[in-house]
Design a protein that fits this description.
Layout: E1 2-5, E2 10-14, H1 23-39, H2 47-55, E3 64-68, E4 71-75, H3 80-93, E5 98-103, H4 114-117, E6 123-126, H5 137-141, H6 144-148, E7 152-154, H7 158-168, E8 173-178, H8 181-191
Parallel strand pairs: 4-8, 5-6, 5-8, 6-7
Antiparallel strand pairs: 1-2, 3-4
Length: 196
């Protein structure tokens, strides 16, 4: 439960089932927008409506643990703020787990935030997402290892890379699939279809 204040009013006893550090600020933005719309006569917003709406919010692939043994977390973080949020989430909620990253980006996304996220990485594999705008695994890996201070392997096939990493996880590691909702969506479809 948390409390939230916008520039118009305060909301108490809110529950947001979407994990991750960026979720509360996204909820604040959504409530602020709903307030403006309600003032324009578009919809209605009360504290009860806000509580009901936020408690029903879902965002598959945002800091979502899909397996616990071995631990697998899917997060479509694809911009500097979301990558920083994922970095904080991993440090706060999984301090005893060494992250193993499967990382894929679209070409128009900034790599800012990746070096910080990858600082604790035990292993990193760059892959190519299913998108016409995909950044190739080789282009992603190029220079990233030096920026992040770790080695980055390449595997252009996301599902094959996922399977290899999944099989090789040590008990103290967790597989983190991130960088794009395209990548997260493909892993959902191919390996966790019951969750889609």
């Amino acid at each position: 439960r948390f409390h939230l204040g916008t520039w118009r009013r305060g909301y108490t006893s809110l529950v947001l089932p979407v994990p991750g550090h960026g979720s509360v600020s996204s909820a604040a933005l959504a409530l602020g927008l709903a307030e403006v719309l309600a003032e324009q006569g578009i919809g209605e917003l009360t504290g009860a409506i806000a509580r009901r709406a936020l408690s029903a919010a879902r965002l598959p692939g945002r800091c979502q643990v899909v397996e616990e043994s071995p631990m697998v977390l899917l997060d479509g973080a694809h911009n500097p703020a979301a990558l920083a949020g994922l970095e904080r989430t991993l440090a706060e909620f999984f301090p005893d787990r060494a992250p193993v990253f499967l990382l894929g980006l679209v070409a128009d996304k900034d790599r800012v935030g990746l070096p910080g996220l990858l600082a604790r990485a035990r292993r990193v594999v760059a892959t190519t997402v299913e998108s016409p705008r995909a950044m190739s695994a080789a282009d992603l890996a190029s220079g990233l290892g030096e920026e992040a201070g770790c080695s980055v392997a390449c595997d252009a096939d996301p599902v094959a890379a996922f399977d290899r990493l999944h099989r090789s996880l040590a008990p103290d590691e967790m597989l983190v699939v991130t960088g794009s909702f395209y990548l997260v969506g493909q892993i959902f479809r191919e390996r966790y279809p019951e969750m889609v």
